[in-house]
Design goal:
With 404 residues, this protein is α/β, with parallel strands linked by helices. It is 37% helix and 14% strand.
Length: 404
């Protein structure tokens, strides 16, 4: 990317997320914002959908002039509309769209240097643990896994070289809830960053930047994409000081989302609100069924009145989402349940319109050492349900017959 285009892009992206005087879309309510996106109707053509700019290169109008685009890795108009929409929904300053959630996390990690100490939620996606421990751990970054739902444990773990706290809330798969404002205050005293993986709730139900997060991460493959057909990831930053460092990393590595997948994700976001409301409504119905079933030992759902983190959830979220984990009374029941499902697929992703049942012990969390899994409760009796938008009665009937 030439320097003219680079400076133009930096200058432009810094100002994108201020309140627009022409189209004050920021005043609208959440469901209006997810449907209309950042730009709304195209001013030139009147198109109600952002076009797919399927181009790898963009011409300059003249010498020493730039449209802000030069090469597809550095910027694309379709992708930029998606990025601006995510930044708007998260109340951030700037967003970047990547080819996967792991590509987004990998980019963020490069903000740190050898010798930096990073605190990480002990209960988190196994792929994130693998990336931190097996990939970046050999480059001199020190990752320490703690229970971020326990503030005293967070305080005790802070060191002079702690530069970041990386939090999943709710956590995967044990549904632990971290107090974002309290953790933000702790790491700010150390002049570090709070990074929050917001995949489970999406910006529709939770906006971590409102509670002190510096960076928000998403696996857009999940609720944001919502149909189990697009892979994507996002970084959203709260502070302008982070724009140029992350822009440089994203541009240099090039793991960006394609124009067609950006367009598909924009289309998916239009239904984010109605999907998540339906998934949550179904989750509450299934919660009642699971809590009353004799074969279920324990249920983990952040909207459960018995969940230890429900009061914190009420403070920092507007909903509880569609993720439920539960333990069966006997490990021998797990193969029987998974083999006898007729409607619900046995698969390891989440957040889509289809309900999926996952066995974290051998699927999503297989990379985590067994002693850590056992300590957390991610054992051979635990199942994780990503609730979709089907009829709740059909889902309950399928679970009931599988339990039998």
């Amino acid at each position: 990317m030439d320097e003219i285009s680079r400076q133009k892009m930096i200058k432009t992206t810094k100002g994108y997320l201020g309140i627009s005087k022409e189209e004050d879309i920021f005043r609208f309510r959440e469901n209006t914002k997810v449907v209309r996106g950042y730009s709304g109707i195209d001013k030139i053509t009147g198109s109600v959908n952002t076009p797919i700019y399927q181009s790898t290169v963009f011409a300059h109008p003249a010498y020493d002039e730039s449209t802000g685009y030069s090469y597809g890795r550095c910027g694309n108009p379709t992708r930029l509309e998606l990025e601006n929409t995510l930044a708007m929904l998260e109340n951030g300053k700037k967003a970047w769209a990547f080819s996967s959630g792991m590509a987004a996390i990998s980019t963020v990690v490069k903000l740190f240097k050898p010798g930096d100490h990073i605190l990480v939620s002990d209960d988190l996606y196994g792929g994130t643990y693998r990336l931190f421990t097996n990939v970046y751990g050999v480059y001199g970054l020190e990752f320490e896994y703690i229970d971020t739902s326990k503030i005293e444990e967070v305080k005790k773990a802070i060191r002079p070289n702690t530069r970041c706290i990386f939090v999943e809330t709710p956590s995967n798969p044990m549904m632990k809830v971290a107090d974002l404002r309290a953790i933000s205050n702790i790491i700010k005293e150390n002049k570090g960053l709070l990074i929050v993986d917001n995949t489970f709730l999406s910006p529709y139900f939770q906006k971590p930047i409102n509670y002190g997060a510096d960076i928000v991460i998403h696996s857009g493959t999940k609720y944001i994409g919502g149909h189990n057909d697009i892979m994507s990831g996002f970084i959203i930053v709260a502070n302008e000081s982070l724009i140029e460092p992350i822009f440089m990393l994203a541009m240099s590595e090039g793991g960006m989302l394609s124009p067609i997948d950006s367009w598909l994700t924009l289309r998916s976001i239009k239904t984010l609100g109605i999907r998540m409301e339906k998934q949550q409504a179904n989750a509450f119905e299934i919660l009642k069924f699971l809590k009353s079933h004799k074969k279920i030992e324990r249920v983990y759902y952040v909207g459960d009145v018995d969940h230890e983190g429900i009061e914190i959830s009420k403070k920092q979220t507007t909903g509880f989402g569609g993720m439920i984990s539960f333990s069966v009374s006997s490990a021998d029941d797990v193969p029987n349940i998974l083999n006898n499902l007729k409607l619900i697929p046995f698969a390891e992703s989440l957040g889509g319109v289809e309900t999926l049942l996952t066995f974290p012990y051998v699927q999503t969390h297989g990379a985590i050492p067994e002693e850590i899994r056992e300590k957390l409760g991610v054992n051979n009796k635990l199942l994780r349900l990503s609730v979709g938008i089907e009829d709740a009665k059909d889902l309950i009937e399928d679970l009931e017959q599988a339990f039998r």
